[in-house]
Each structure stands twice: as structure tokens, then as C-alpha cells.
Amino acid sequence: MKNNQVKIKDKWSKLNKLSNKWWQVILLISLVLIGGVFWQRFSWSDNSYRLTKGQRVEIIPGEILRQKFLAQDNGLAVVEILIGGKDLQPEYFLDFLLMEADCRRVLRQTTIAGHYVLDSKRLFRFAFLPIADSEQKWYCLKVVYYSKARSAKKKKVRFYLNAAKNDFLPPAEVIRKDKTVQLAAPLVLRPRYRPLSWREGLVVFNQRFSQYKPSFLKGGWLWWWLIIAFFFNTWLVRRLLH
Fold this sequence. Notes:
Blueprint: H1 2-41, E1 44-45, E2 53-59, E3 64-71, E4 76-81, E5 92-100, E6 106-112, E7 124-131, E8 137-147, E9 157-162, E10 172-175, E11 181-184, E12 189-193, H2 198-208, H3 221-241
Antiparallel strand pairs: 1-12, 2-9, 3-8, 3-10, 4-7, 4-12, 5-6, 5-8, 10-11
């Protein structure tokens, strides 16, 4: 009888150890996934671009909208633009092309299709692989609106113009179906940048949030607090699992 009880206790202890190891593996995988998602999403906006919603410019299928802009930093990875509030209809498409300053060579491209929600309360993110050497270079954002429907109706898409004064930006260009070019105020547009390495990302993260941190988290103290928090959380998890 005692031997059976001892065997049962041994089995339970082995199962507990095994489950603790699995919990540690799950915790490690979760931390890696959270860190990876954060790294993929982490970017910072260009503060030199002031955004104020102004009037709107409309385009119909077969028309093109262009805006040249200046990247102030390396790692250009996102262009944010404010589009009108109606949803994109089925069989209607918007091509977003990031091009060189002369608007000829395509560097990055994406397409949004029908049923896409165009929310005028938040900026649309045209995200792409970072451009390493983008600092102080001009780029051309080209938006092409078209439809694959047999009888494409004149369903309009609206883009917001910027009421704030960004004197360094040239006017937006609207290329109509008859090839005429109309000039408008610059678009509500803003570049965003991503770090090109983990070290740069940590440095930028520290700098960008320094204005919101208390004094004991500024400068090199932040890294000490992060190290202490990491080891404390590791110790706490091990205590809970054992």
C-alpha cells in the first residue's frame, strides 16, 4: 500500500515538473511573439509635418493623385494619408505607389480593393519595407484610382487637403481623365520611420518617450530599470511555477 502511494506521488511530482517546463516554454514563446509584434509595429512619426484637416479633393476612376514629400530621417517605412469616409466599392481599387522624386521609378507599392473601410477619423497607413538611406530625400506618393467593372460609374474617392502650413511641401497634383493637371493644397500626409537595428530601436524608443517619463526613468536609468524588471519577472514566474 505504501509502495503504491509512493509511486503515485512520484508520478504526480514528475507531471508537475513537466507541466512547469511547458509553462516556461509557453511563457518564453509568448514573450518572443509579443516582442516580435512590437518590433514590427514600432515606428515614429515625422514631427515636422503638421496635420490639420481642411477641404477635400475628389477623384474618379481613371484619375491620379500625386504628392511629393521630404523624408527627414532614415528608415522610411510608412506614409500616412487621410482619405474620405466612404467605403471603397466592390471592383474598385486604389494603388498606392512610393516613387522616386521624379515620379517615374516605383520603389514600393500596395493596393486596396473593394469593401475596404475608408475611415476619415484616422490616417490610412501605407506600410512597406524600410528604406535605409531615406534621410533628406524627396519622394513622390502616387495614388491611382481605377475600376475593373464593365460600366465603371463615377464613384468618387475623397482625400483631405492640409489646412496647416507646411511651407516645404509642394502642391498636390490631380491628373484628370482628360490629362489636365490641377494643383491643390498639400495632402494631409505624414511619413513614419522604423529603426534599422535593435540598438537603434532602443535608443529611439528612449528618446521619443523621454518627454513623458519621470526623471528617474530618463537617460541610462531606463535600461537599469528594464534589466531589474526582467530579472524580477523571471524570478516571480519561477516562484509561481514551483
